[in-house]
Task: structure prediction
Amino acid sequence: MNRTHYKAVWPSVLILSLAGLLAACNPNFEVTATPADSAPVAESVADLAMAAPEDAGMDSGRLSRLTDAMQGLVDDGRLAGVVTAVARHGKIVHFESAGYRDMEAGAPMTNDALFRIYSMTKPITGVALMMLYDEGLFRLSDPVEMHIPELSDLQVAAGVDENGELLTEPADHPMTARELMAHTGGLTYGIFSGSEVDSMYVEADLLNSGITLKEMVTRLGAIPLRQQPGSMWHYSVAVDVQGYLVEVLSGQSFDDFLDERLFEPLGMDDTDFYVPAEKAERFAQIYTYDEEGNLAASEMFGAGNDYMVDPALKSGGGGLVSTTMDYLKFTQMLLNGGELNGERILAPLTVDMMHRNQLPRGLPENIFGAPGTVFGLDFAIVTDPVEAESFSRGEYYWGGAAGTWFWIDPVEELIMVGMIQQWGQGLPNVRALSRQLTYQAIMEPLGVN
Result:
């Protein structure tokens, strides 16, 4: 992508006007006129430059506990490999890898390793959709069926009759775009609950990597909702539907939209729906735990997608592969209010809307069993740090099925991204551990009155 960069130089009259205003407010302020042709121009510092922790109000020695803890989990055989990164005030203060990308091959983990990020795809899809919101192409109160006719007039499951046949009733209102983005639209996933509707999702093979988003949505439109829209928070295929909505509203394929409008502007060069052959040596092996608790290589979800070929289904809910650095760029853009290094992705108020509580009134603040937590537009949000055993009100975050995780803390101006490739019983709680060891290293907190 060719870009033109401009350097702004303020006219001397404006400099002197501002200087006069400062002098009026501060009698000790001295004004020195500088000729316009020799006026100094401050060089902007790029986001995510490497810096010492002390430059961002953190302690190097204490932050090294995070490095030591991750290495300890590797040494104990609980993690194969891990990459962790922390940035504060726009500066990377920690970027470390430990263990192996592939244990059997003896290939060490590296900071540029590629990971299946699964549900960490969801916030990216949400941002893509809200870019179209910024263009006025939909409203959060719009019925989804206004834009996706395949989801018109959906019925809702209402139990079974004496023969075990599913009973249905009309939806009390059409699912809205807000409900779609907040997992309150009545959809499900097919794997997190044992309802009749979940069984229908499995039978329809909704997330088959060989079908298109349009085909997925068409199959979904033939299945009743699991519950009434707006009645509860229930994790679902809603973000895959959002990916299709991006296609409908933009007139582009979902992957082309992401490439042109998000990944290229942010420099997320390694984020895609598959791993090209020239990058295969950086792709991390995925592991689970055998009966003895030892690590064993094993793909998730029946290895339906091996990630080495470009799938037909561009899953907005879980299809992307990425790197730690790419995801740092994405999260820093959000922390900056929608901009990174001069590239504006979203309006600041749109980003703010995404991490406000979007749940219907009366729903509990307990998402996925996490107390003190609500849901916005494709992000979980901490509303009570005490209940959530976190540190800042307004922290927003999510994670992926293979153990990847991130959080964004607007109070402390901090982001953290962690990448592993593991699943199953025995997975250590790296998310909670990394949170403790990151915050204990902050020596200049902003959230303490």
Residues 1-43 form one domain. The CA atoms of residues 45 and 239 lie 35 Å apart.
